[in-house]
């Protein structure tokens, strides 16, 4: 992945250098510092993320944010319109990501359990874990206590929160790995940094919400 990233940014620098060279030698006249040129620092990494990252949700939203800011800087739309357009688009993208899960790094088993809270709350103490599971919180809260659960093999947890919160309490002897997309939200991993033990992988999508891992 580092090799791909280096090549990508190397190519970007080469293109920018060629544009400067052509301007200096009067081969062409390209205005690199147009109104809103700074949005390229959002747009270009987002485009790269669409092709490089497994989860496209964050890159898609970042790209839309960058494009909207560029349009506003060009006086095509007003800055006040950005939020009116962005908010429903974020909801649509997150909804589509929940429907289409073919891009997950690891597919969930068909018999995986789901803990879903929509405008409600779920609070459970789990003493036995037989398979991977999902925790989904939409305008609600999900609290799962696995501290007394026997986890004998690697576990995969998919956590999705939209305007909600998810608390995951895990045993002390597990090794926690996290990956995902926080979008106007936050994920806090308070677990001990164990180098050995059963691996618990948490893949998250966090939009205007919070996920706490204890």
Please provide a written account of the structure.
The chain is α/β, with parallel strands linked by helices and 214 residues long. Helix content is 35%, strand content 29%. The chain contains four helices and ten strands, in the order H-H-H-H-E-E-E-E-E-E-E-E-E-E. The chain has helices at 2-24, 40-52, 57-73, 79-99, and strands at 113-118, 121-125, 133-138, 141-145, 155-162, 165-169, 175-183, 186-189, 199-207, 210-213. The protein has a five-stranded parallel β-sheet with strand order 1-3-5-9-7. The radius of gyration is 21 Å and the shape is elongated.
List keywords for this structure.
single chain, 35% helix, five-stranded parallel β-sheet, alpha/beta, elongated, 214 residues
Short characterization:
The protein has 214 residues and is an alpha/beta fold. The chain has helices at residues 2-24, 40-52, 57-73, 79-99; strands at residues 113-118, 121-125, 133-138, 141-145, 155-162, 165-169, 175-183, 186-189, 199-207, 210-213.
- β-sheet strand percentage: 25-35%
Low-confidence stretches: 102-107
Order of helices and strands: HHHHEEEEEEEEEE
Distance between the termini: 30 Å
Q: How is the largest sheet built, in terms of strand order?
A: 1-3-5-9-7
Total count of strands: 10
Mean pLDDT, to the nearest integer, reads 82
DSSP helical segment count: 4
Form type? elongated
Helix content: 25-40%
Largest sheet entry:
5 strands, parallel
Backbone structural class: alpha/beta
Rounded to an integer in angstroms, the radius of gyration calculated over CA atoms is 21 Å
């Amino acid at each position: 992945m580092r090799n791909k990233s280096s090549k990508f940014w190397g190519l970007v620098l080469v293109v920018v250098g060629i544009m400067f060279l052509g301007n200096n030698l009067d081969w062409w006249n390209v205005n690199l510092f147009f109104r809103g040129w700074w949005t390229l620092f959002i747009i270009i990494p987002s485009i790269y993320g669409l092709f490089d990252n497994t989860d496209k949700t964050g890159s898609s939203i970042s790209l839309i944010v960058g494009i909207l800011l560029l349009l506003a800087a060009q006086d095509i739309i007003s800055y006040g319109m950005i939020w009116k357009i962005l908010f429903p688009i974020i909801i649509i993208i997150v909804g589509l990501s929940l429907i289409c899960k073919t891009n997950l790094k690891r597919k969930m088993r068909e018999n995986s359990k789901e803990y879903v809270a929509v405008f409600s709350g779920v609070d459970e103490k789990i003493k036995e874990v037989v398979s991977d599971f999902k925790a989904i919180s939409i305008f609600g809260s999900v609290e799962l206590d696995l501290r007394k659960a026997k986890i004998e093999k690697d576990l995969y947890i998919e956590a999705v929160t939209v305007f909600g919160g998810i608390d995951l309490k895990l045993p002390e002897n597990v090794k926690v790995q996290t990956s995902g997309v926080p979008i106007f939200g936050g994920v806090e991993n308070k677990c001990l940094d164990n180098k050995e033990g059963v691996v618990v992988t948490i893949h998250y999508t966090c939009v205007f919400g919070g996920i706490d891992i204890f």
